[in-house]
Amino acid sequence: MSTFVKKKNIINPAFFFIAVCLFVGCSGDPLEPEKPDNSDEGWQWRNPLPQGNAILRLYMVNENIGTAVGRNGTILKTVNGGDTWELQESHINENPVGGIFLWGVHFTDINTGAAVGILGTILHTNNGGKTWVQQESGTDETLASVFFVSDQVGTAVGDNGVILNTVNGGLDWTIQEGITDKILEWVEFSKSGMGVVVGQAGTVLISKDFGATWLKQETITNNDLFGISVVNEDVIVLVGKNGTIIRSEDEGNTWETQICGTKETLYSVSFIDENCGFAVGTFGTILATSNGGESWTSSQITPPNSLLSVCGLNEAKAIAVGGGVERTFDGGRSWVNSYPYFHTSGFRGIDLIDEQVGVAVGAGGRIFRTTNGGHGWSDLCIGVDVDFEGVSISEMGVGAAVGRGGAIVQTKDGGEHWRQVKSGESQDLIGVSFLDDMHGLIVGNGNTILKTIDGGSEWFPLTDEEGTGLYSVSYCTIDTAFAVGAEGTILRTVNGGIIWEKQNSGTKAHLFGATFLGSTTGVVVGADSTILRTNDSGETWIIQGGGGYNYLMGVSFSSQTNGMVVGYFGEIMSTCDGGVTWTNEICPTGKHLFDVDLASTGHAFAVGDNFIILEKNNNFE
């Protein structure tokens, strides 16, 4: 662990409030990746496993083998009906901050498949996804769906009416122009080559020649349509906005509206045969029918994440995705979450105590701990239902985690055990910093500053006036500390917290993270991509970054020169010259990151939404 004092804090600048929809699972056993990677090749997933990006679409070749795609170029494969998933490399996540979204996937057999996404992205595999090759699409439009009738003939559709066709396995794609300018959401074919495309404002296109030509088809709805199930050569079922379900039994010549009992948007539909089908949509809506849609039964998953894709496997089994993975084994009467996903809740703070032991804290009272250098993490399940915002533990193993509603939990054994202590505060507590096994500081909303001199058993206030929110604190020496917060606030004390003086930061941006290397050199980060540095105990602040749009939430330095910053949309930057220059790093997620801790060895961990923990071994040169 670095000998430099580091801040442990964070706040969501929404701040303010986070709705927590939490699936809590407790285990005393570390969550071990199958193949720990200690290389310095890049950031590696440590939680969730195998990865934590949102899953957006799914295609099952059969009841066991399937492929799911999602954010940041994520591609996952299952060979056991969704029991487990293997992460595959797409090699496209290094494009923009936030990453490439893959919106569509289709396989003609267990080996040959394609995936499509934003910026005209098309990927192709002929070995079951072991390798994916990017193909030239000829468009920058978002592609939402792809379907191959054979290993050679395929169609992809997307925004602004784009329709692409290939007859040589994707080596060449031809743009089919002049058909529609509407956003197109889904394409699907029957075995005989009848194709259907749906999209914005009730758009339906029909092809009878494997996608070579398309004709507009009149329907009975103007609602946006999102999903298709081509059941056989005659029967087609479409779903869309406001609970729309329409069915044709004559190749789309005439349509009949079905009543499903919901007004939620339906994004996907899958029929096993003419009678048995499933549909999914917003707020975790799942519909099932066993009579061709004459009646639908409704259920809802918890948490109610929107479901974007469903594949029926047989009359009893189906898999749905939308962030995570849901499965049914009883025809849709009940659903089991087999791959949790959290949209906004997650980890907010992390502290490395030494090279082996570290702690991450977050929403719902979750505290994860590692004792093997971060390869495996245990969910401690301490029994406190609090949204934690920050954590700090001294090298002696004494520290605290702080959170909403004035919550404080204390540890005296390096985070193995925790007990709740009274803060005397109702304000949200955001940042915490322990100098040693006795002295600690906490900051929070309403200008709250608390101090302990007994290792965190008792806390007393250092301020009695309401004021701006404080989001990070760094305890430098027994007398010197800094706190940062809203509207460019930087406070300094040189007498152990008796008096706090406001410094001129030169910015009005909210400041969320701070770290000090001794009492003279410090780095602060915040909104508008702000990075500030002082080399004179805060008398002056040098602007090293700013003017951008992003929220930078966490910062950590392992030496005077080597440091890292994390922020929204998976942004990670590193410096090896004290912040004179910053380099954007390739991050495997586009989720918001809230904290980072960098040890003197270069070993780094970053945490964020969806209870993400990322690890990297850095070689600063």
Q: Which stretches of 5+ consecutive residues score pLDDT under 50? A: 1-25, 27-40
What's the total number of strands?
Answer: 58
Mean pLDDT: 91
Q: What's the name of the CATH homologous superfamily of the domain at 8-23 and 345-547?
A: YVTN repeat-like/Quinoprotein amine dehydrogenase
If strands are numbered along the chain, what order do they take across the biggest sheet?
1-40-41-42-43
> What characteristic shape results from the CA principal axes?
elongated
Helix content: under 10%
User: So, CATH architecture of the domain at 8-23 and 345-547?
Assistant: 7 Propeller
Radius of gyration: 27 Å
Structural class: mainly beta
CATH topology of the domain at 8-23 and 345-547: Methylamine Dehydrogenase, Chain H
Approximately how much beta-strand content do the residues carry? Answer: 35-45%
The biggest beta sheet reads: 5 strands, antiparallel
Taking the alpha carbons of the first and last residues, their distance comes to 19 Å
Number of helices: 0
Query: CATH first level of the domain at 8-23 and 345-547: which class?
Result: Mainly Beta
